[in-house]
Amino acid sequence: MIAELTEKQRSRIPEFIAKWSSLGLSAQPVNHPLAEERVRKAYRAAGLPGPTAFVWFESSLIGAIAYLALRELEELRGAGWLTIGASLGLSVEPPRIASLERLTPDVDRDVLSIVTKDLADIVYDRVYNRVDAKVIKSIDDSLAPAIRGSGWDRMRGSFGAIDDGLPWEVLRLRILTNLPRLSTMVFRNGLGEKARVDWRCLCDYLLTVCGVVSCESPNYLDLNAPPLCWWPFERVCLMSERYHEVRQDEDFQLHSERGPAVKYRDGWGVYCWHGTVVPSWVITEPHKITPDTIINESNPAIRFVMLARYGEDRFVNITGLPVLPLGQYPDLARTATASAAQRIVALMAKTSPNMVYVVRLPPGGWPD
User: Fold this and answer.
1) Is the overall model pTM greater than 0.70, yes or no?
2) 3-state secondary structure of 149
3) 3-class SS at 334?
4) How far apart are the C-alpha atoms of 368 and 83, rounded to whole Å?
5) CA distances (Å), 57 to each of 47, 101, 126, 329, 358, in order?
6) Which residues contact 267 (CB under 8 A, 6 or more apart)?
7) Which of 313, 320, 326, 300 is nearest to 362 (CA)?
8) What phi and psi, each to the nearest 5 degrees, are found at residue 15?
9) Helix (H, G, I), strand (E, B) or coil at 128
C-alpha cells in the first residue's frame, strides 16, 4: 500500500503534466497502420471481430458528419451498420477516475486524491476543457451548414468503394431533420480518447513513478501514444486525423489574432479569442466590427471579444457613451430600459468587475 508520496515522487508531477499536455494536444499526423492496429486490438479485447474497413477523415467535423450518416443508416438497414460504441466502450474504455480507486487497492485514497488534483485534473483542463471542448462546440455549430454544403460531398468521397449504393440524400435529409437531437450524440458515442486523457496520465504516473502495476494499460492502449478520435461500427470504423495546428495564449486558452486557433488539414478550423469561440469573421475581418455590431450582438461572450478587438477607448470616443460605476446600476446587466426617445443597453458587465458601458441610443434608436 502506498500511503504517501515521497518528495522525489512529488517532484516528477510537473514532468507528467508537460508530457500529457503535449501528447493530448499533439498535432503530429496519425500513423494510420499503427492506429488501425490499436483499434483492431480493442475490438478483439471486447470479443468482437475487427472492422472490414477503416474510413479516414481529415477533420473531426467531417468524421462527425459520417458518424451521423451511419447512425441514420443503422435505423434504416440495421444489421451490418450497427454502432458498437456503447458495447465496445463498456469492454475496453478506461474507467473514470472516480472508479479507479477500486482498481488500485494498493494506493491510499488520499494519495490518489492528491495525484488526481495535482496532475490529472490539470491535464484534463488543459487538453479537454480548454481545447477539445471548444472543438466539439464548433463542430456542433458547424454541422448544419457543412451537411448542407460541401462537407457532405467530402464525407461521401472518403467512403470510396464502401459507398455500396447507400441512400445518401435520404440520410442527409434525416440528419438535418433530427440534428438538434443527434449532435449531442456525436462525441458521447464515439471513443474519443481525449476525454480520458486524465485517466491515462494518472495511470502512467502511478505505474512509472510509483510502480503500481495494477495501472498497467491493456495492450490495445499505448500510454505513450497521442490519443485518437474514432467511431466504431460493425462493418467499418471511422477515424479522424488530429488537428494540424493549435495556438494558445499564456494561460493555455485557445487564441489567435490572425486565423484559426485550431486548424485541421482540410482547412476547417476553430476561431477563438482567449478561450472564447467566435465567428471566423471576428478574427479574420475585424474591420467589420462596428459600434452597431457590438451593441446588436446577443451573445455576451462574443460581444466582449468584439469590444476588445474594436478597442474600448475607441468605442467610447466614437459613441460618446459614458462609463459608469456598475454599483450605481445594479439591475443594468440584466435589463434594458426602453422609451420612445432612448434605450439603455448594458454592454458587457464582465468587461470590468466594477464598470459597465451604458449605451444611450438617439431618438429612433440605432439601426438594426
Assistant:
1) yes
2) coil
3) coil
4) 47
5) 27, 37, 25, 52, 48
6) none
7) 320
8) -60, -40
9) helix
The pLDDT tens digits of the residues spanning 133-150 come to 899 889 988 999 999 999
Q: Which of 151-155, 193-197, 235-239 has the lowest mean pLDDT?
A: 193-197
Q: Give the end-to-end CA distance of the chain in Å, rounded to a whole number.
A: 67
Residue 211: strand, helix, or coil: coil
Looking up cell 502511478 gives 206
Per-residue pLDDT at 354: 41
H-helix or E-strand containing 269? strand 269-270
Query: Which has the minimum average pLDDT: 52-56, 136-140, 144-148, 224-228?
Result: 224-228
The b-or-e profile of 159-194 (16+ CB within 10 A means b, else e) is beeeeeebebeebbebbeeeeeebbebbbebbbbbb
Site of grid cell 459608469: 324
* Mean pLDDT of the 275-287 span: 95
Domain ranges of the chain: 7-244, 285-360
d(CA 168, CA 211): 52
